[in-house]
From TrEMBL:
InterPro entries: DUF5597 (IPR040719), GH (IPR017853), Glyco_hydro_42_N (IPR013529). SUPFAM superfamilies: (Trans)glycosidases. The keyword GTP-binding does not apply. Residues 392-528 form the DUF5597 domain. This is Beta-galactosidase. The lineage of its organism: Eukaryota, Fungi, Dikarya, Ascomycota, Pezizomycotina. Residues 48-198 form the Glycoside hydrolase family 42 N-terminal domain. The keyword RNA-binding does not apply. It comes from the Eukaryota. One of its GO terms (biological process) is carbohydrate metabolic process.
Length: 565
């Protein structure tokens, strides 16, 4: 099959898009709980639920223990049925390879791997009281393990090509899951210590020195100076004795390991592949409000050391080139900072795990609009009922305009996405109201006006057309926000709203129809285009001027007047 017929990543001037069956594809995804794909019976009760939630892509794990229970003997019967069932519901799949690691630990490897510690040695960590402790995590510095994992992954991906190479039900594959060492800043097994005291590989030293000006600031902050990066010395001699040297050591070796596994799969079937990572938490996170299990920490080892956090992201991007992109799993961090970080070096953004509640659902609009994400997916959506799931309404609304979204993503200054948390939320005051420039106008986005308490909000603005008279048409999608417009043309003395109409859209034809014209109170007498909440608070005000959202879609035409007439 020609490469262009396979799912692939197409790079544009502004983003990277997933192409499926020749067309840009926006992932409205749901990542299932860890072992859901291990049971056809369990999945039978979930497929229709995913459809009813307006999900178009299901993310689920395929574990090494599941497909190679005995070395060299493979069983793909369960995943084959999962693929057939997904296809029958017109759903796409992103398969997550739980190979050597899942959440930094080797719990999904086969029994024959777990029971052979001499052949597949474990990570050793130093406990707080100075003891050496053998862990359940398999070390990444041993060739036998990567060879076995790569062979299993190659067989799995070859089989995918055989059973799905024409249908493209599977559109991407994740390689491993949140790798890294937990409990210490690096592997301290005898073999790992020997490598640590050996010379730093020349390719790493040269990369850091030659690419110094394009490295992420968080990596550069851990390095003294590019001129100190000299070949021929061991890790602590080159980078200093610190936990961040340990982290770079682990990142380099994990990246090389994952690259070998991904490369083995790519040799059989050229699907887009990526790796996901458990993030570290800084002052901008809410981690301290949660137990360590959920919160991770600030230091390598509190979170999986060696995973592709911002301070080693460049190392991963360089030494795992078979990955189409590096993905963050984000639950408790500042969402804008995470999205911005993982667009580093203009790589595509895809978020395979985030919160499944309304807080998380609001954020998909910023991911897709501002950061041009391929998708941002909640974890464990299968544990919710359709009517209780916030993503049901968000995904349905997104689906109604996603062809316009994908077209606008490819253009400069043609799409903007945003969200507002409840005003009393911790993050609500940490970001100013967003301001965008489109089609010669400045657009300031605020919470929707109410006479009572303001609420949360979310949405997209898409530039649709500019006319010869300087008027511009914008599509507004979402709820709980309003937009002020200001013409940037020289000599403009007034900017106003010419037309503002609530719209519906035919899903078959893509044609818009006017539901109602909006003016007066709905525009605060022409000052803002208001996309209200579903149930705006009037605060007991005796005059009802706060209308509720109906279609959550509107077209607004704006104009500017010159002082010269």
């Amino acid at each position: 099959m020609p490469l262009n017929d396979l799912p692939h990543i197409a790079r544009t001037a502004t983003a990277g898009q997933l192409i499926v069956n020749g067309r840009p594809f926006l992932v409205r995804g749901a990542e299932l709980q860890n072992s859901s794909f291990s049971s056809v019976q369990h999945m039978a009760g979930l497929w229709q639920k995913m459809v009813d939630m307006s999900v178009n892509t299901v993310l689920g794990s395929v574990s090494w223990e599941m497909v190679e229970p005995r070395e060299g003997h493979f069983d793909f019967s369960v995943i084959d049925q999962v693929i057939r069932d997904a296809r029958s519901y017109n759903l796409k799949l992103i398969l997550l390879w739980f190979g050597t690691w899942k959440n930094g630990i080797s719990t999904y490897v086969p029994r024959w791997v777990k029971m052979s510690p001499k052949r597949f040695p474990r990570v050793v960590v130093q406990t707080r009281d100075g003891r050496a402790e053998v862990t359940e995590t398999i070390s990444c510095v041993h060739g036998a393990t990567v060879d076995a994992d790569a062979a299993a992954f190659r067989s799995f991906v070859r089989h995918l090509n055989e059973v799905d190479g024409e249908q493209n039900t599977v559109v991407m594959v994740q390689v491993q899951n949140e790798v890294g060492v937990l409990g210490d800043s690096r592997d301290r097994s005898d073999a790992a210590n020997e490598v640590y005291q050996s010379n730093v590989p020349s390719d790493l030293v040269r990369f850091l020195r030659e690419d110094w000006h394009t490295l992420h600031p968080d990596l550069k902050s851990k390095l003294e100076d590019r001129h100190t990066l000299v070949e021929g010395y061991n890790w602590p001699q080159t980078f200093g004795q610190s936990i961040y040297t340990d982290e770079m050591f682990m990142a380099y070796h994990y990246a090389r390991y994952v690259e070998k596994v991904a490369q083995a799969g790519q040799s059989e079937h050229s699907l887009p592949m990526f790796a996901n990572f458990w993030l570290n938490y800084g002052e901008d996170s809410m981690a301290k409000a949660y137990p360590t299990l959920a919160g991770g920490g600030d230091l390598p080892g509190d979170y999986p050391a060696g995973g592709a956090v911002s301070s080693v992201l460049d190392i991963w991007m360089k030494f795992a080139p078979s990955l189409s992109f590096i993905s963050p799993d984000t639950y408790l961090n500042d969402y804008h900072r995470v999205c911005s970080t993982y667009r580093h070096r203009k790589q595509p953004l895809f978020i395979p795990e985030q919160r499944r509640d309304e807080y998380g659902a609001r954020r998909i609009w910023a991911a897709v609009g501002e950061y041009r994400a391929i998708g941002s997916c909640p974890f464990a959506l299968d544990t919710l009922e359709v009517d209780d799931c916030a993503y049901t309404k968000h995904y349905a609304l997104m689906a109604s305009v996603e062809d316009l979204v994908m077209a606008a993503q490819r253009e400069t200054n043609s799409i903007a996405g945003f969200f507002f948390d409840e005003p009393d939320h911790k993050e609500a005051s940490s970001h100013p109201d967003p301001v965008f420039e489109m089609a010669g106008y400045e657009l300031t986005v605020e919470r929707a006006f109410t006479t009572g308490a303001q609420g949360a909000g979310y949405g997209l603005i898409i530039h649709r057309e500019t006319n010869s008279d300087g008027t511009a048409k914008f599509l507004l999608v979402g709820a709980g926000f309003q937009v002020k417009f200001r013409s940037l043309a020289t000599g403009t003395c007034f900017t106003g709203i010419l037309d503002f109409e609530e719209k519906t859209r035919d899903q078959e034809t893509g044609e818009f129809a006017t539901h109602r014209r909006l003016n007066g109170d709905e525009t605060r007498s022409g000052h803002q285009a208001i996309m209200p909440n579903e149930d705006p608070d009037d605060g007991g005000f005796p005059i009802n001027i706060c209308i509720p959202a109906v279609t959550k879609m509107a077209e607004c035409i704006v104009y500017g007047l010159s002082a010269e007439g």
